Amino acid sequence: MVRLRRLALPPSVLWSLCGIGAGGGALAGWLASRAWRTARLISSTPPTAVSGLTPGLHEVRGAIRGEGSLVSPMSAQPCVYWRLLIEQRRQNRWESVLDRKDCVVAALDDGGGRVALQPIDADVILSRPEHATGGILGVPSAELTRVLATFSESAPNLQGPYVRYREELLVDGSRVHVVGTVVEDGDGWRIGAQGDVHVLSDRDESEIVRHEERRALRFVGATVLGAGVSVWSLLQIFGL
């Protein structure tokens, strides 16, 4: 019979590991279920014209239109939505240093009507070169200092020589499609009920489905890892 090697760890540490493993595994399991659900919803929902919307789940394609504009933090471009992610490599994985986004009041226009939406509440998936760019920032560097100062952020734990960034943005008129629950909003419609899982993307539908399925598989792996840590900790605690 194969016995797991027993490590000389205090019970308090083992109980902490057990709790972290169980909690992390449960969270990853929920995220995996959410990603699978999103993939299934997208693949099973046909496009609907704005003029034909009714309450419920729909996929709508068109041009995003914003009331006013913002300026993206890295490229200084006028836009209606932006997200900036800065990451650094720590212990063989990329960890987020800064993840911010902002948007104006927006709507999706398919030429026959408009439906209100809020990109900041959606799962935004952008990949086209005009919508997503990335690069490397030196540590330290004037550019990184400027960007962090924009958000009044300090990053004392940054390790050189560099970090990577990704900026995503949508300008007025960008072609996208949105999948989500349509609800009444005053005199019109809005995509994205409170707590609703909805997706906004510039990708083809099949690409989004594959993206969500890959996310689900990664979260399944994290679920298994969390369960393994929890079980191993219990075996250590009870001397099995």
Would you spell out the secondary-structure blueprint of this structure?
Elements: H1 11-44, E1 56-66, E2 70-71, E3 78-79, E4 81-90, E5 93-103, E6 106-109, E7 114-117, E8 123-125, E9 132-138, H2 142-150, E10 162-170, E11 175-185, E12 188-191, E13 199-201, H3 205-237
Parallel strand pairs: 7-12, 8-13
Antiparallel strand pairs: 1-6, 1-11, 2-3, 4-5, 4-10, 6-7, 9-10, 11-12, 11-13
Q: Separation of termini?
A: 12 Å
Shape: flat
- The count of helical stretches stands at 3
Radius of gyration, in Å, reads: 22 Å
- Helix fraction bin: 25-40%
Low-confidence stretches: none
Strand content: 25-35%
How do the SSEs run, as a string of H and E?
A: HEEEEEEEEEHEEEEH
Largest sheet strand order: 1-6-7-12-11
Question: Count the strands?
Answer: 13
Task: List its traits.
single chain; 240 residues; alpha+beta; five-stranded mixed barrel; four-stranded antiparallel beta sheet; 3 helices
General description of the model:
The protein has a domain at 46-205. The protein is 32% helix and 34% strand. The chain contains 3 helices and 13 strands, in the order H-E-E-E-E-E-E-E-E-E-H-E-E-E-E-H. The strands form 3 sheets. It has a 5-stranded mixed β-barrel. Strand 4 and strand 5 form a beta hairpin. The longest helix has 34 residues, at 11-44. The protein starts with 10 loop residues before the first helix and ends with a helix. The mean pLDDT is 85.
